[in-house]
Write a structure and sequence with these properties.
The protein has a single domain, classed as Vaccinia Virus protein VP39 (Rossmann fold, 3-Layer(aba) Sandwich), CATH 3.40.50.150. The longest helix is centred in the first third of the chain and has 14 residues. Helix 4 packs across helix 5 and helix 8 packs parallel to helix 9. The strands form 2 sheets. It has a 7-stranded mixed beta sheet, with helices on both faces. A two-stranded antiparallel sheet has the order 3-4. 39% of the residues lie in helices and 22% in strands. Strand 3 and strand 4 form a beta hairpin. The protein is of the alpha/beta class.
Length: 272
């Protein structure tokens, strides 16, 4: 039987107006913002670690963070890690000015300036982009060394279009690294979203933050369609929880390989 609590939580999330969601996320009330917003310094260090694992360094490079969540903090700390320039892209999240004002004063003075009573980022170092990545990439092809994201791609409806834009924006020899959360975002039910057909999911359960429900194989296929070298690693698996619910999971989400199907977090490394 479908868990009632899951349906209640999903329906409530779906019914909450997006301006209310943005307000709650900005302040961490009830809804928790992503770590790019809540702990940008730690995420910048994590991104630097990922690049180091791939034999790359941030120093002197141009970086794009896809789906940055509206808080400029992640860009500031990537600059502190040595990046030459950072592009923060997100067509949906509004600039979180409340968060910007909470950055340390020394960093505000280093990377921002006051204009009309507001803090504005130095455009030579930090750019906030609130249009589609495809539109931005079309005007700036091959200008970025690294594209990074964390728990973003699972929310993208047209993933093939986004990956194509990532390819266009990336310099030849550049690298993309994306951490993808394959779990249902109602954390107590990591695979519950895979138990419903497309019509039920779209009409009743999918919320404004959209979960595309794509599995590991789909990510591999889409990235290989555009990038010359693609590696996918399973960063976290929930095999026991998966096997408990497997009889209810719809066949289109099953490959017959429980180890692969139970992936909760994957990391995609793609080189142009």
């Amino acid at each position: 039987m479908p868990p009632l609590k899951y349906w209640v939580l999903r329906l409530c999330r779906r019914a909450t107006p997006q301006p209310v969601v943005n307000f709650l996320l900005d302040r961490g009330i009830v809804l928790k913002p992503g770590k790019e917003t809540s702990d940008p310094e730690a995420v910048a260090a994590l991104y630097a670690q990922w690049l180091s694992e791939c034999g790359q360094r941030l120093k002197g490079k141009t970086v794009c963070v896809v789906g940055y969540g509206g808080s400029a903090g992640i860009g500031v700390y990537l600059l502190e890690q040595g990046a030459r320039r950072v592009i923060l892209q997100d067509p949906f999240a509004p600039p979180r000015k409340w968060r910007i004002g909470r950055l340390p004063a020394r960093l505000m003075q280093r990377y921002f300036r006051r204009e009309g009573g507001e803090w504005v980022p130095d455009p030579d170092r930090l750019e906030q982009v609130h249009e589609s990545l495809a539109a931005y990439a079309a005007r700036n092809p091959g200008t970025v060394d690294f594209i990074l994201s964390r728990s973003v791609l699972e929310h993208v409806d047209d993933l093939d279009g986004l990956v194509a834009a990532c390819w266009e924006l990336t310099r030849r020899g550049g690298l993309n690294i994306h951490l993808v959360n394959l779990q249902d975002h109602v954390s107590a039910y990591p695979f519950e979203m895979l138990c419903y057909g497309s019509r039920t999911w779209k009409r009743w359960l999918n919320a404004s933050n959209n979960l595309n429900r794509l599995r590991t194989g789909a990510y591999r296929e889409i990235f290989q369609r555009h990038f010359s070298s693609v590696g996918i690693g399973i960063m976290e698996s929930k095999l026991e929880q998966f096997r408990e619910i497997r009889p209810r999971i719809r066949p289109e989400f099953l490959t017959g390989d429980d180890e692969a199907d139970a992936a909760a977090l994957i990391r995609v490394d793609a080189k142009k």
